[in-house]
Amino acid sequence: MEHAEYVYTAGLGDDEVAERLAAADHCVLALADGGDAYAVPVSCHWDGDALLLRLSEHGDAAKLEYVDTTATATVVVYDVADGADAWSVVLRGRLVERETPDEATLNEWFGPFRLFDEAVEDVAFRVLALEPAATTGRETV
User: Fold this and answer.
1) What is the predicted pLDDT for the residue at 1?
2) 47 with 106: CB under 8 angstroms?
3) H helices within 10-140, ranges in order?
4) Can you name the residues that pair with 96 across neighbouring β-strands?
5) For residues 90 and 130, is the Cβ–Cβ distance under 8 A?
6) Which DSSP state fits 82?
7) How far apart are CA 16 and CA 20, in angstroms?
8) What structural domains does the chain harbor?
9) The pTM is what?
10) Could you give the angle at the alpha carbon of 127 between the alpha carbons of 97 and 60, nearest 5°?
């Protein structure tokens, strides 16, 4: 490692992890089906016990198919500032469907939904909770 650049990291305590999760509004959800992996950015909301994920139902059902085949999901919440200062929290656990709240609550919990090729009236939401069985947080020092 003579010429490789690196920075030192340290673990985050439980309170620091909770603070990072409470401030987060997006994450990467990683799913699997046998030997195939699927990762997708999604909006998130920490409720103090679980990380709530807003998934859309429309023409591309790939993520929902992977949700159904994933026993243990992984979510990565992270931020990188100025190329060196960074933190990440990795959560692993099972996904549990939650009742989708009304639109006002969805808007309170999650940022605006980004439409691609779908029409507004064709989009429906599902809220899943990742109940963490394992959580690891790290930050640069």
Assistant:
1) 65
2) no
3) 14-23, 62-69, 103-109
4) 129
5) no
6) T
7) 6
8) 9-140 (2.30.110.10)
9) 0.90
10) 100
Q: Give the separation between CA 67 and CA 97, rounded to whole angstroms.
A: 10
Query: Which of 123, 121, 108 lies closest to 55 in space, CA to CA?
Result: 123
DSSP 85-102: EEEEEEEEEEEEEE----
How many Cα atoms within 13 Å fall on the side-chain side of residue 47?
17
Whole-number Å distance between alpha carbons of 42 and 30: 10
- Average pLDDT value for the chain: 92
Q: What torsion do the CA atoms of 51, 52, 58, 60 make, to the nearest 10 degrees?
A: 10
CB 123 within 8 A of CB 102: no
Task: Quick: pLDDT tens for 89-124.
Answer: 999 999 999 999 999 999 999 999 888 877 888 888
Tokens of 87: 């933190």
Q: Which residues of 36-68 are buried (b: 16+ CB within 10 A; e: fewer)?
A: eebeeebbbbbeeebbbbbbbeeeeeebeebbe
